[in-house]
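Recall that a protein's primary structure is simply its ordered list of amino acids. Everything else, from secondary elements to tertiary packing, is in principle encoded there. The following example makes that idea concrete.
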Amino acid sequence: MSTFREARDRGGLYLLGQLHADGSFGDPGLGVTEYYKVPAALLVCGLSHAASRMLRWIRHHGFLPDGDFGPRPAHELDSYYYTYHNAWVIKAAHRMGAFDLAWRGMDFLIGFRDPASGGFYSHPTARGSSTEQDLWVVSGCGWCAVYTGRLDVARGVGAWMRRMMKEQPDFPNELWTVYSRERGLITEVMDGDDFRYVLTRDESRDQSFYHPGIAAGFLCRLYMATGEVEWLDLAKTYMRFCEHVGDYHFSLLRAGKVGWAGAMLYTLTGEAKYRDMAVRVGNNLVETQLVNGAWAWPEMGIQGPHNDITAEMVVWLDEIHQAIGED
């Protein structure tokens, strides 16, 4: 299983090659959407000097007075996953001890929190009862709450996820992923966007297979931080969806988060089925890695190296290696 470590490190070296002398990364014109996962990826590869150089660049060029990260391309200014980019920077900054970025960044995220539901709004400015809240976006905010010690906020996210699960009409055959206070769990596809609203066993279309993975991964972290078994049990429940799908879902790069959750659940429970999930994802990542260490993103029509997906796969390979790899 050292192949997971080796693939991780090849990916890290590819990313290192995209780092500029001033600490900026890749195409600076893409702003936060280009760099947000990279400090975490460099860190897990042991390239802490490069990760620190990137955080220094972010501090001086990408960190806004209100705690937001930028710059933002125009098409991302009103995206429903606005906070997802912030979450990756905050987690890496906290792990690096860059608490100015982590704590002020978390203060900014708190502005998206819905105190009534415990979730986080999926819109940069809207805060009404009809404003939607997405499972993977809320998970990323909860993840940051655990890292920055906001356990009351993190428990609120856990309770929000528990409510989401209780309202599922046909789980584990399908997983509905969007909520609003006005409607509760939304169980119809809005605006024809089945990718966003529901995950099923259907293998004829690209699907958001990351949803059960990021939810379960967050819940495992919450369990580790609090010792409260209900969160571990809920993580197992979300991962039940992954026990009922075929090879198609596991072949997607979107399965990376499922590999992370499987690795964590194997670490916490010792159950072989979670190890098998993690290995299944890890093997696919190794097989699809390009010669130069990067990954393409065929689900998105991208056949050449892609910095964003490469950085994320590096992080998940590290998580899988931590749980089941060899030195």
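The mean pLDDT is 96. Residues 189 and 197 are 6 Å apart (CA to CA).
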